[in-house]
Amino acid sequence: MNLIDTHCHLDFPDFDKDRLSVINRAKDAGIVRILNVSCSMKSCKKTSELTRGSDSIYGSIGIHPHDAASADDAAISSLKEMAKDKKIVAIGEVGLDYYRNLSPKEKQVEVFLKFISISKELNLPLIIHSRNAMAETLDIIKREFKGNCKGVFHCFSGDEKSLDEILGLGFYVSFTCNITFKNAERLREIVKIAPMDKVLLETDAPFLAPQHLRGKRNEPAYLAYLLDAVSEIKGLSKEEIADTTTRNANRLFKLGI
Q1: Is 212 one of the annotated binding-site residues?
Q2: Residue 210 sits in which domain range?
Q3: Does the annotation place 204 within a ligand binding site?
Q4: Binding of a divalent metal cation 1: at which residues (predicted)?
Protein backbone atom coordinates (compact mmCIF):
# COMPACT_ATOMS: atom_id res chain seq x y z
CA MET A 1 0.00 0.00 0.00
CA ASN A 2 1.12 3.53 -0.80
CA LEU A 3 0.13 6.41 1.46
CA ILE A 4 0.57 10.17 1.30
CA ASP A 5 0.86 12.43 4.34
CA THR A 6 -0.71 15.57 2.89
CA HIS A 7 0.12 17.85 5.80
CA CYS A 8 3.00 17.83 8.25
CA HIS A 9 5.69 20.16 9.58
CA LEU A 10 9.03 18.35 9.41
CA ASP A 11 10.77 21.72 9.42
CA PHE A 12 9.74 22.30 13.05
CA PRO A 13 12.42 22.10 15.78
CA ASP A 14 10.68 18.99 17.15
CA PHE A 15 12.45 17.02 14.41
CA ASP A 16 15.89 18.63 14.56
CA LYS A 17 17.52 15.71 16.35
CA ASP A 18 16.26 12.86 14.17
CA ARG A 19 14.68 14.29 11.01
CA LEU A 20 16.33 11.78 8.66
CA SER A 21 15.26 8.86 10.84
CA VAL A 22 11.69 10.19 10.82
CA ILE A 23 11.74 10.39 7.02
CA ASN A 24 13.13 6.86 6.76
CA ARG A 25 10.50 5.49 9.15
CA ALA A 26 7.84 7.08 6.99
CA LYS A 27 9.22 5.32 3.91
CA ASP A 28 9.29 2.01 5.78
CA ALA A 29 5.61 2.57 6.69
CA GLY A 30 4.63 2.98 3.04
CA ILE A 31 4.51 6.78 2.96
CA VAL A 32 5.57 7.51 -0.62
CA ARG A 33 5.04 11.28 -0.46
CA ILE A 34 5.15 13.83 2.34
CA LEU A 35 3.76 17.31 1.86
CA ASN A 36 5.62 19.66 4.19
CA VAL A 37 3.34 22.62 4.84
CA SER A 38 4.80 26.03 5.60
CA CYS A 39 3.38 28.46 8.12
CA SER A 40 5.89 31.34 8.38
CA MET A 41 8.74 32.99 6.46
CA LYS A 42 11.28 30.83 8.30
CA SER A 43 9.17 27.75 7.70
CA CYS A 44 8.93 28.48 3.96
CA LYS A 45 12.71 28.62 3.65
CA LYS A 46 13.18 25.38 5.57
CA THR A 47 10.46 23.69 3.52
CA SER A 48 12.26 24.60 0.30
CA GLU A 49 15.45 23.07 1.70
CA LEU A 50 13.63 19.87 2.67
CA THR A 51 12.12 19.44 -0.80
CA ARG A 52 15.56 19.71 -2.37
CA GLY A 53 16.95 17.07 -0.03
CA SER A 54 14.43 14.28 -0.68
CA ASP A 55 12.60 12.97 -3.74
CA SER A 56 9.60 12.02 -1.59
CA ILE A 57 9.10 15.41 0.06
CA TYR A 58 7.09 18.16 -1.60
CA GLY A 59 6.15 21.49 -0.09
CA SER A 60 3.73 24.36 0.18
CA ILE A 61 4.36 28.06 0.67
CA GLY A 62 2.23 30.20 2.96
CA ILE A 63 1.86 32.06 6.23
CA HIS A 64 -0.42 30.76 8.98
CA PRO A 65 -3.04 33.26 10.20
CA HIS A 66 -1.26 33.32 13.58
CA ASP A 67 1.69 34.99 11.83
CA ALA A 68 -0.30 37.18 9.45
CA ALA A 69 0.83 40.36 11.21
CA SER A 70 4.41 39.67 10.07
CA ALA A 71 3.47 39.34 6.39
CA ASP A 72 4.30 42.65 4.74
CA ASP A 73 4.30 43.21 0.97
CA ALA A 74 8.00 42.37 0.65
CA ALA A 75 7.47 39.03 2.41
CA ILE A 76 4.48 38.16 0.24
CA SER A 77 6.41 39.03 -2.92
CA SER A 78 9.35 36.88 -1.82
CA LEU A 79 7.09 33.92 -1.06
CA LYS A 80 5.39 34.23 -4.43
CA GLU A 81 8.77 33.69 -6.12
CA MET A 82 9.50 30.72 -3.87
CA ALA A 83 6.15 29.18 -4.83
CA LYS A 84 7.28 28.91 -8.46
CA ASP A 85 9.67 26.06 -7.63
CA LYS A 86 8.62 22.74 -9.20
CA LYS A 87 8.61 20.95 -5.82
CA ILE A 88 6.18 23.51 -4.37
CA VAL A 89 2.71 22.16 -5.11
CA ALA A 90 0.36 24.27 -2.99
CA ILE A 91 -0.24 27.56 -1.20
CA GLY A 92 -0.71 27.14 2.52
CA GLU A 93 -1.36 26.86 5.19
CA VAL A 94 -3.36 30.05 4.97
CA GLY A 95 -6.74 31.18 6.21
CA LEU A 96 -8.39 32.54 9.34
CA ASP A 97 -8.05 31.64 13.01
CA TYR A 98 -10.47 33.49 15.27
CA TYR A 99 -9.94 31.07 18.15
CA ARG A 100 -6.64 32.50 19.33
CA ASN A 101 -6.50 35.74 17.31
CA LEU A 102 -2.71 35.98 17.49
CA SER A 103 -2.92 38.41 14.55
CA PRO A 104 -5.69 41.02 14.15
CA LYS A 105 -8.71 39.74 12.23
CA GLU A 106 -8.43 42.41 9.54
CA LYS A 107 -4.77 41.50 8.95
CA GLN A 108 -5.64 37.81 8.71
CA VAL A 109 -8.22 38.59 6.02
CA GLU A 110 -5.82 40.85 4.15
CA VAL A 111 -3.07 38.21 4.04
CA PHE A 112 -5.51 35.43 3.19
CA LEU A 113 -6.71 37.43 0.18
CA LYS A 114 -3.15 37.96 -1.00
CA PHE A 115 -2.40 34.25 -0.90
CA ILE A 116 -5.65 33.49 -2.69
CA SER A 117 -4.45 35.82 -5.44
CA ILE A 118 -1.13 33.95 -5.65
CA SER A 119 -3.00 30.63 -5.73
CA LYS A 120 -5.06 31.78 -8.69
CA GLU A 121 -2.14 33.33 -10.55
CA LEU A 122 0.13 30.28 -10.17
CA ASN A 123 -2.71 27.77 -10.46
CA LEU A 124 -1.78 26.09 -7.18
CA PRO A 125 -4.31 24.57 -4.76
CA LEU A 126 -4.93 26.14 -1.36
CA ILE A 127 -4.31 24.42 1.97
CA ILE A 128 -6.78 26.18 4.24
CA HIS A 129 -6.67 26.59 8.01
CA SER A 130 -10.01 27.71 9.42
CA ARG A 131 -10.76 27.74 13.12
CA ASN A 132 -13.80 29.48 14.61
CA ALA A 133 -14.06 31.30 11.29
CA MET A 134 -15.75 28.89 8.90
CA ALA A 135 -18.55 31.22 7.74
CA GLU A 136 -16.18 34.05 6.84
CA THR A 137 -13.65 31.67 5.28
CA LEU A 138 -16.33 30.23 3.02
CA ASP A 139 -17.72 33.66 2.16
CA ILE A 140 -14.27 34.83 1.06
CA ILE A 141 -13.71 31.73 -1.06
CA LYS A 142 -17.09 32.05 -2.75
CA ARG A 143 -16.46 35.70 -3.53
CA GLU A 144 -12.89 35.32 -4.74
CA PHE A 145 -13.16 32.12 -6.78
CA LYS A 146 -16.73 32.28 -8.09
CA GLY A 147 -16.92 28.49 -8.36
CA ASN A 148 -13.49 27.83 -9.92
CA CYS A 149 -11.51 26.79 -6.86
CA LYS A 150 -9.38 23.90 -5.69
CA GLY A 151 -7.72 22.95 -2.46
CA VAL A 152 -8.29 21.30 0.89
CA PHE A 153 -9.60 22.27 4.31
CA HIS A 154 -6.95 20.68 6.47
CA CYS A 155 -7.63 19.01 9.82
CA PHE A 156 -11.35 19.31 9.19
CA SER A 157 -13.48 19.30 12.33
CA GLY A 158 -16.57 21.21 11.20
CA ASP A 159 -20.18 20.12 11.11
CA GLU A 160 -22.21 18.48 8.35
CA LYS A 161 -23.40 21.83 6.98
CA SER A 162 -19.83 23.07 6.61
CA LEU A 163 -18.82 19.80 5.01
CA ASP A 164 -21.59 20.11 2.43
CA GLU A 165 -20.60 23.69 1.59
CA ILE A 166 -16.92 22.82 1.25
CA LEU A 167 -17.63 19.85 -0.98
CA GLY A 168 -20.05 21.94 -3.03
CA LEU A 169 -17.23 24.39 -3.75
CA GLY A 170 -15.04 21.57 -5.06
CA PHE A 171 -12.66 21.36 -2.10
CA TYR A 172 -11.31 18.27 -0.42
CA VAL A 173 -11.29 17.70 3.35
CA SER A 174 -8.44 16.07 5.23
CA PHE A 175 -8.62 14.24 8.52
CA THR A 176 -5.95 13.72 11.14
CA CYS A 177 -5.27 11.34 14.01
CA ASN A 178 -7.58 13.40 16.23
CA ILE A 179 -10.38 11.19 14.92
CA THR A 180 -8.92 8.51 17.22
CA PHE A 181 -9.41 10.63 20.35
CA LYS A 182 -11.87 9.28 22.92
CA ASN A 183 -14.03 12.43 22.76
CA ALA A 184 -14.12 12.60 18.94
CA GLU A 185 -17.36 10.70 18.32
CA ARG A 186 -18.97 13.64 16.49
CA LEU A 187 -15.92 13.97 14.26
CA ARG A 188 -15.99 10.26 13.50
CA GLU A 189 -19.58 10.71 12.30
CA ILE A 190 -18.34 13.37 9.87
CA VAL A 191 -15.64 11.00 8.63
CA LYS A 192 -18.32 8.37 8.09
CA ILE A 193 -20.40 10.58 5.77
CA ALA A 194 -17.55 12.30 3.90
CA PRO A 195 -17.37 10.96 0.31
CA MET A 196 -14.16 9.02 -0.23
CA ASP A 197 -13.38 10.79 -3.50
CA LYS A 198 -12.94 14.01 -1.50
CA VAL A 199 -10.98 12.70 1.51
CA LEU A 200 -7.27 13.16 2.21
CA LEU A 201 -5.15 11.84 5.09
CA GLU A 202 -2.68 13.89 7.13
CA THR A 203 -0.79 13.75 10.40
CA ASP A 204 -0.24 17.48 11.04
CA ALA A 205 2.93 16.23 12.74
CA PRO A 206 4.37 17.02 15.22
CA PHE A 207 0.83 17.73 16.49
CA LEU A 208 -2.17 15.47 17.11
CA ALA A 209 -0.56 12.10 17.79
CA PRO A 210 -3.09 9.24 17.85
CA GLN A 211 -4.95 8.44 21.06
CA HIS A 212 -2.55 5.79 22.37
CA LEU A 213 0.38 8.16 21.87
CA ARG A 214 -1.23 11.40 23.07
CA GLY A 215 1.26 13.77 24.60
CA LYS A 216 4.04 12.44 22.39
CA ARG A 217 5.37 13.80 19.11
CA ASN A 218 3.41 12.80 16.03
CA GLU A 219 5.25 11.82 12.83
CA PRO A 220 4.35 10.79 9.26
CA ALA A 221 4.76 7.05 9.92
CA TYR A 222 1.80 7.27 12.29
CA LEU A 223 -0.45 7.81 9.28
CA ALA A 224 -0.87 4.02 9.51
CA TYR A 225 -2.95 4.50 12.67
CA LEU A 226 -5.15 7.01 10.89
CA LEU A 227 -5.59 4.54 8.05
CA ASP A 228 -6.76 1.91 10.55
CA ALA A 229 -9.27 4.33 12.06
CA VAL A 230 -10.73 5.50 8.74
CA SER A 231 -10.98 1.90 7.55
CA GLU A 232 -12.95 0.93 10.65
CA ILE A 233 -15.23 3.99 10.49
CA LYS A 234 -15.96 3.59 6.79
CA GLY A 235 -16.23 -0.18 6.80
CA LEU A 236 -13.79 -0.34 3.90
CA SER A 237 -10.51 -2.19 3.53
CA LYS A 238 -7.27 -0.41 4.34
CA GLU A 239 -6.16 -1.07 0.76
CA GLU A 240 -9.19 0.75 -0.62
CA ILE A 241 -8.73 3.71 1.73
CA ALA A 242 -5.04 3.92 0.87
CA ASP A 243 -5.59 3.67 -2.89
CA THR A 244 -8.38 6.25 -2.94
CA THR A 245 -6.73 8.84 -0.70
CA THR A 246 -3.42 8.48 -2.53
CA ARG A 247 -5.17 8.97 -5.85
CA ASN A 248 -7.02 12.01 -4.45
CA ALA A 249 -3.81 13.60 -3.15
CA ASN A 250 -1.97 13.00 -6.40
CA ARG A 251 -4.86 14.49 -8.37
CA LEU A 252 -4.96 17.63 -6.23
CA PHE A 253 -1.24 18.23 -5.68
CA LYS A 254 0.29 16.60 -8.78
CA LEU A 255 2.87 14.57 -6.87
CA GLY A 256 4.10 12.45 -9.78
CA ILE A 257 2.64 9.11 -8.71
Answers
A1: no
A2: 3-253
A3: yes
A4: 7, 9, 93, 204
Question: For residue range 104-116, what is the model confidence (pLDDT) as tens digits?
Answer: 999 999 999 999 9
154 in a known ligand binding site: yes
pLDDT in tens, 4-34: 999 999 999 999 999 999 999 999 999 999 9
Was 129 annotated as part of a binding site?
yes
Which of 175, 192, 199 minimizes the C-alpha distance to 233?
192
CATH of the domain at 230: 3.20.20.140
What is residue 136's predicted lDDT score, i.e. its pLDDT? Answer: 97
Total domains present in the chain? 1
